[in-house]
Amino acid sequence: MSAEFPFLGGVAVRDSTDDLPEFRMWAWDFETDEFIYDGDGNHILLRQNEAMKVWIYKALRTERFSYLAYSWQYGIELKPFIGKVMGVQERKSELKRMIVECLMVNPYIRSINSVTFEESNHAEELQVIVAITTIYGELVVHV
């Protein structure tokens, strides 16, 4: 792991939060991958941990270095896994490392407490459950 993300007992920890403004994002429907609107057709604005859920979901679903609209620090690198021969445990360990690196770029995230994997009914799908501590408290996200 890089020196940028210190690990204590397998958990990445960040102490400094400085004076960050309140974290806000537009509401997102995770099932349809579209914005959520109110009855008048306006975007719904989420705050703090609810907004963090959207950011985490989108960061873990965005391939890093693939879109000019995003910083090179944003997203996750999954392309190296395609066609690479690895054992299941090695693959999960490497995936966990990439997830931690992807999420720890966000200054609102203090620590990644756990990353677990669940296989779905479809053999090619893997659900990731990430337990996180943000500056607003504890949070669990399923992607």
Short description:
With 143 residues, the chain is of the alpha+beta class.
Biggest sheet: strands, sense, closure?
5 strands, antiparallel
Tertiary shape: globular
Kindly report how far apart the N and C termini lie.
23 Å
In CATH terms, what is the fold-level topology? Nuclear Transport Factor 2, Chain: A
Mean pLDDT: 82
| Percentage of residues in helical conformation | 10-25%
Written as H for each helix and E for each strand, in order along the chain, the element string is EEEEEEHHEEE
Q: Low-confidence runs (pLDDT<50, min 5 residues)?
A: 1-10
Q: Per DSSP, what share of the residues sits in E-state strands of 2 or more residues?
A: 25-35%
Radius of gyration: 16 Å
Number of helices: 2
How does the helix and strand content classify structurally? Answer: alpha+beta
* Whole-number tally of structural domains: 1
